[in-house]
């Protein structure tokens, strides 16, 4: 890859800055929503009673944002992402509480998984930003990997084997680490192909929100798979 011009460097830094700002905001909203849910008995009861409805709403927000990103305004995209982040915090609250309690008096699996996730995510984001390898050729492989992972997870619900669960978790961590690098490279190429003023444009802001959603999903999936590994290992001791 050729060295970047000063204008390209400014555009790239600005776009990625907006993207990671949105991602960080989403993570904060998720954490706050989860905290409110576990500390408010009424809200926690509501989440438990309407869990599947909330999950369906989450999926609707994710797919809706993906399908409508070219038709909606940047403000609407930001609102949809924010709603999704809050809903995700609510639906994750029960899982986070269960694993936190599992930690007992020792280090919480939630904290350990989060710190490890941050390290892995940051490393793979740097790899995706700096690598000269064209990762787009692996897009289909990653997509099929995610489909296979979903199918294996559904099968594991019925089988309930700890060995299979561990394999799924390890594969999930590896797969979404790779997807993080893939998404990061796509965002870099998007910014560079957008031209001057891309970051300040309506489309640039929408793409920053959409890019934040992709990176957010990568981070959350790595975190959840690691949480299963750390929690499972602790439970077996």
Automatic annotation (TrEMBL):
Membrane disposition: Multi-pass membrane protein
Q: Which CDD domains match?
A: BI-1-like_bacterial
Bilayer-crossing residues are: 20-38, 50-69, 81-102, 108-129, 141-159, 165-182, 208-230
The record ties this protein, via InterPro entries, to: Bax_inhibitor_1-related
Q: Where is this chain's protein located in or outside the cell?
A: Membrane
Q: Name one Pfam family in it.
A: Bax1-I
Entry keyword set: Membrane, Transmembrane, Transmembrane helix
Top-level taxon? Bacteria
What family is reported? Belongs to the BI1 family.
| Protein's UniProt name | Bax inhibitor-1/YccA family protein
Name its species: Deinococcus roseus
Q: What is the lineage of its organism?
A: Bacteria, Thermotogati, Deinococcota, Deinococci, Deinococcales
